Amino acid sequence: MIRMRALTFCYPNTDLRLHIPELTVAEAQKVAIIGPSSAGKTTLLQLIAGILTPQAGSVHVGNVHVNALSDARRRGFRITTIGFIFQDFALLDYLNVLDNILHPYRITGALRLRHDIRTRAAKLATEMGIGDKLQRRPEALSQGEKQRVAICRALLPYPKLILADEATGNLDPANKTRILELLCRTVEAHHATLVAVTHDYELFGYFDRVIDFRHFGSSVIS
Amino acid sequence: MMDSLYLTWQYVVFHKIKTLILVACVTLIATLPLALELLLRESEQQLLARAAATPLVLGAKGSTLELVMNSLYFSTETPETLSMATMHQVMTSNLALPIPLYVRFQARGFPIVGTTFDYFDFRGLRIAAGRPLTILGECVIGATVAERLRLKPGDSLISAPENLFDLAGAYPLKMQVVGVLQKAYTADDLAVFVDLHTTWVIAGLGHGHQELAHTTDTTVLLQRSDTSVTANAKLQLYTEVTADNVDTFHFHGDAATYPLTAVSAVPHDAKSATLLRGRYLARETPHHMVRPKDVVDRLLAEIFRIKNVLDAVVLVVSGATVLAIALIFALSLRLRQKEMTTIFQLGCRRRTIARLLASEMLIIACLSGALCTGVLVVLAHVDSDLVRLWMVR
């Protein structure tokens, strides 16, 4: 699903230098990325998503050479192929739950907001246990409920790849396990690939594979 | 585009206060100069129409503007007076029909206009209810006066004393309302019309009191001779003209000296007008004959000069407000930075982000436009009343 080769990336005016000789993630695999802060975990996700462009090397997602695409096509590819889950949920406070889930469909022409998509959004929310809160705004939701909304938003466009950036970082232990279980179950049901950045060693059991960024700027260790 | 509008609409509804402030600012910027323009145009029309319909006004030398505003729009500033003798001069000249005017007093905030029947014919005023003036102490009121004071024929109206503490000044006179005029949409709607003699009674030049010739009440009499009777302050002066006391009303002094504030002269033709004006051109004459249209034209030129200053002020304020709005948008953009980063990371195109921001401005512009249009439509309906209320009077 993901293939990175001889990848080099560094931010201007910083010491961070990311070098990945080779990294592959198989389809439908659930991968955890761990490592100290500022090791480049989020940067790796952004390189996979095409938000950042490497100085050297290549990133392939499926058959698409992501960093060879133009900016516009990369955005279109991202919104249709990749689902993003953020640590702070990144929900829009002025939209209700349903509109937050449907949000990707309203900001791109690549996805068409049809009636069946609305039905699917409601169904997905019900599967995630927030079906009765579709008309509520984020401020009226608990942290766990907010993350479920964020997961629904990421899953709705049938993405082949889910990138979760410390998706459980803001949750209490009970919610953490429950949300991750839900996420893994839903990802499996949709045959999607999951790459999640996490600090929680106790959650490793949910993943097929763990990638450790033990040292700053180190190569990837499987 | 519909999705962008939908998202933006949700955003502006959620941030109601910010949206309302922005809409109010933009509406104010757009409405203020347009409303000013509308009101000025209406006032210009009204002032000019009435001025153009009044060929000449004769008054004592002084401010021509005061004379015209008082005789045409019944303003409270009273010009210097002229005598009835001056009016007779116009009459005997056979060059114009003189219509005397004495506009000095008020009744419950509305001007009392002392004049003759000719005034009603000249202005084309018609009685809507009741009858015209017949005897002293009666009044016919304008449509707006009747409306605001809820008066009808049969009711009464008391003139206001000029100065509460001036014992020698004008005393209040209770006037009988005998008629209500049809709406004329001019200053006449806001006036209380009485016979010229009634205004002189209010002015204290004429009065009615208990009969003294045959009275034996010594507490009232100070002195009695063959030709005159002198009474003291106990003498009862009538403050209302009734059928019983109307005969006791009389005037003192030479009628030719009785005051007028102006004489509206209606020349028979253009030549008569020129001749009549010529008679009052001499420097030594204490009167002047003015063409109200010339005075109003000068006034309007002044108003429009002031309007230019106002326009400049509005422009500067608008510029400052536009900058403030730009600042609000910039701050709003900073507040939405996280949201923009999120939708960028989700894969939103730059064009869509720009469209989201543009649609916020579009919605605010549309709301302001609608509000501005609403205000202007309402203003266009009431502008004539507003002008009459604020500017003409």
What are the secondary-structure elements of chain B, in order, as H or E?
HHEHEHEEHEEHEEEHEEEEEEHEHHH
- Based on CA atoms alone, the radius of gyration of chain B comes out at 31 Å
Beta content of chain B comes to 15-25%
Overall geometry of chain B comes to elongated
Q: Distance N terminus to C terminus of chain B?
A: 53 Å
Proportion of residues in helical segments of chain A: 25-40%
Measured distance between first and last alpha carbons of chain A: 16 Å
Question: Can you offer a commentary on this structure?
Answer:
The complex is a heterodimer of chains A (about 220) and B (about 400). Chain A is of the alpha/beta class and about 220 residues long. Chain A has one domain (about 30-45, about 70-210): P-loop containing nucleotide triphosphate hydrolases (Rossmann fold, 3-Layer(aba) Sandwich). Helices cover about 35% and strands about 20% of the residues of chain A. In chain A, the strands form two sheets. In chain A, strands 6-7-8-3-9 form a five-stranded parallel beta sheet, sandwiched between helices. Chain A has a four-stranded antiparallel beta sheet with strand order 2-1-4-5, covered by helices on one side. The model of chain A is unreliable at about 215-220 (pLDDT under 50). Chain B has about 400 residues and is α+β, with helices and mostly antiparallel strands. Chain B folds into two domains: about 1-45 and about 300-390, no CATH class; about 55-210 and about 250-290, no CATH class. In chain B, about 50% of the residues lie in helices and about 20% in strands. In chain B, strands 1, 3, 4, 5, 6, 7, 8, 9, 15 and 16 form a ten-stranded mixed beta sheet that branches. In chain B, strands 2-14 form a two-stranded antiparallel ribbon. In chain B, helix 1 (about 1-15) crosses helix 11, helix 2 (about 15-50) runs antiparallel to helix 9 (about 290-335) and helix 2 (about 15-50) runs parallel beside helix 11. Chain B is elongated, with a radius of gyration of 31 Å. The model of chain B has no long low-confidence stretch (mean pLDDT about 85). The interface of A and B includes residues 46, 51, 86, 90 and 105 of A.
